[in-house]
Amino acid sequence: MNYGLQLYSVRDLTKESLEEAVRQVAELGYKNVEFAGFFGRSADEVVAMLKANNIEISGTHSSLDDLINKYDETVAFHKAIGNKYYIIPSYRLSNQQEIDYFVEKVNEIMPKLDKEGITLAFHNHARECMPNADGSVALEQMIYRTNIKLEIDTYWAYVGMKNPVELITRLKDRIICIHVKDGYADGKGMPLGMGTAPVKDVYDKAKELGFLMVVESETCNPSGIAEAEICIKYLKSLEI
């Protein structure tokens, strides 16, 4: 099994040295990385650090506003680094008006990105799974009003909907990968195997459906790399 890591998990290290973070993540045995910012690195520098560590880019968490406000520059950078999955990590979706704006922009941008060989996707938190104050539910509208692909964060789906296995089963044809992570139902994240989320059930279903599993661990306690190591060891224990 090949696993990826969302580099937000090691943000205490990426802010000091993105290159060192990628090196240490690869050393732990992760085969893919999902970027959460590039810290001023050029496309050539990003490609060089990937090649130096024999690790691949599985996607990026990148801003929808960058596509709206500087489309050509943004697309050129992502093509240069070989990124095929442009994942929106969050957006303003707290009412129907904001959802309508998001839907309009996604439907405008997606076909253009498709022609460039880049797939647009969205990463959920708990809030998009739950009704807003006006009754609108962002994730559900995203599903039926756009063709955007999804990176389902199974922990936040657990917090917001209680049953992430049902969600990834229902949406299997829209999913490009999942975030496999752990934590408590109150929203406190933990390394894999240390919370109450149904990680083993998620793992089994993701394996059955053939999803790439991207680890995200949120607390950097005692460090991001320490948590990343706990997580990959836990996943490997499930392979037995």
Q: Describe it for me?
A:
There is one protein chain. With 240 residues, the protein is of the alpha/beta class. It is built from eleven helices and ten strands. The protein has a single domain, classed as Alpha-Beta Barrel (TIM Barrel), CATH 3.20.20.150. Helices cover 46% and strands 18% of the residues. The strands form two sheets. The protein has an eight-stranded parallel β-barrel, surrounded by six helices. The model has no long low-confidence stretch (mean pLDDT 97).
Give me a quick take on this structure:
The protein is of the alpha/beta class and 240 residues long. The protein contains eleven helices and ten strands.
